[in-house]
Amino acid sequence: MGPLLRRIAACSKIGADTSLYIYYFERNKTFSALARTIFGYVEENQENVTLCTSGVTLVEALIHPLRNGRTELVDGYKKLLLSTQGVQLIHLNTDGYLSAALLRAKYNLRTPDALQLGASIQHGCEVFITNDRRLKRVSEINVLVLADYV
């Protein structure tokens, strides 16, 4: 078991930023293997582990495929995010939006980042996986940066 899997092994809910889904689905040269390891772990443990993300991921992941007319990628992302066992798209409620506002104010985060983190916190995720090193300053959730594990 690699270092990243050791960090998430005790977690039942894992928050994930858009980058993880893009690396996994579009087979990014640098991070695809790590993303596939995480998705494999979630699939093997789907009774006990859920990979969570907010609707921001659906928006962000679809921008380029829609812009470039890549309907197969659009359909693939929708399937991955909306109907894959072990993957859950978090719907924010008022508390999630308030959490996002507080995070944005406290850490001067961009709104999408604050929404992603707010959703993960609201949903009870123990960790948040990203590749945005700036998010490590958030203390309300344990932020893991993929580049630290390559």
What does this entry look like structurally?
This protein has helices at residues 3-8, 18-26, 32-44, 55-67, 71-83, 94-107, 111-122; strands spanning 13-16, 50-54, 87-90, 127-130, 142-145. The radius of gyration is 15 Å and the shape is globular. The protein has a domain at 14-89 and 125-149: Rossmann fold. With 150 residues, it is an alpha/beta fold. Helix 2 crosses helix 3 and helix 6 (94-107) packs across helix 7 (111-122). A five-stranded parallel sheet has the order 3-2-1-4-5.
First and last CA, distance:
14 Å
Oligomer: single chain
Q: Write down the overall mean pLDDT.
A: 95
Order of helices and strands: HEHHEHHEHHEE
How large is the radius of gyration?
15 Å
CATH T-level fold name of the domain at 14-89 and 125-149: Rossmann fold
Unreliable sequence segments: none
What's the helical proportion of residues?
A: 40-55%
What proportion strand? 5-15%
CATH class of the domain at 14-89 and 125-149: Alpha Beta
Write out key terms for the chains shown.
Rossmann fold, 5 strands, five-stranded parallel beta sheet, single chain, alpha/beta, 150 residues, 7 helices
Produce a short descriptive summary.
The protein has 150 residues and is α/β, with parallel strands linked by helices. The chain has a domain at 14-89 and 125-149: Rossmann fold, CATH 3.40.50.
